[in-house]
Amino acid sequence: MRSGVDVTSRITMYETILLPVDGSESSMRAADQAFRLADNSEATVHILSVVDTSRYGTTALSSTELIFDELETTAASVIETLESEAADRGIATEGHLSHGQPSKEIATYGAEIDADLIVIGQKGQSRGSTTPIGSVAERVVRQAAVPVFVT
Predict the structure, then answer these.
(1) Domain-wise residue ranges, the chain
(2) Of 48, 45, 36, nearest in space to 15 by CA
(3) Residue 151 and residue 138: Cα distance in Å, rounded?
(4) Which is nearest to 56 in space by CA: 79, 77, 35, 72?
(5) Contact 117, 147 (CB under 8 A)
(6) How much is the pTM?
(7) Along the 151 residues of the chain, how does pLDDT read in single tens digits?
(8) Contact by Cβ (8 Å): 23, 125
(9) Is domain 23-150 in CATH 3.30.70.20, yes or no?
């Protein structure tokens, strides 16, 4: 403590952390960071996985429905795995699965839960890009009304 300055008052404490995940290595690293932050501030981590329907068009085609079913199953499994890991660490979580364009769904859900912070992986499942940050993370950084921690 420096000459009457309360250092603890400068530490940002979070109550609600949004963790968008897609099962990629980067999103799993983001989960670890979100859990560390939540553990230090006793925050609830909202784990969001978005089935990207913008890539496949309408669900009227049976093959598209099968793709969505598989994506939903994978997304639910990722959420369940992370909820279990968080529970083992004593961290409160809420899982949510949505459909749509990922960056828009992340922004919308973040506003709905009044998130204090978004923790997102640097790059998701798309591996073709050589940019240092993926398109979804980049859009979230631009659109978010709250701080975004990209890891």
Answers:
(1) 23-150
(2) 45
(3) 12
(4) 72
(5) yes
(6) 0.86
(7) 445 555 554 456 899 999 999 999 999 999 999 999 999 999 999 999 999 988 766 555 567 778 888 999 999 999 999 999 999 999 999 999 999 999 999 999 999 999 999 999 997 655 555 667 899 999 999 999 999 999 9
(8) yes
(9) no
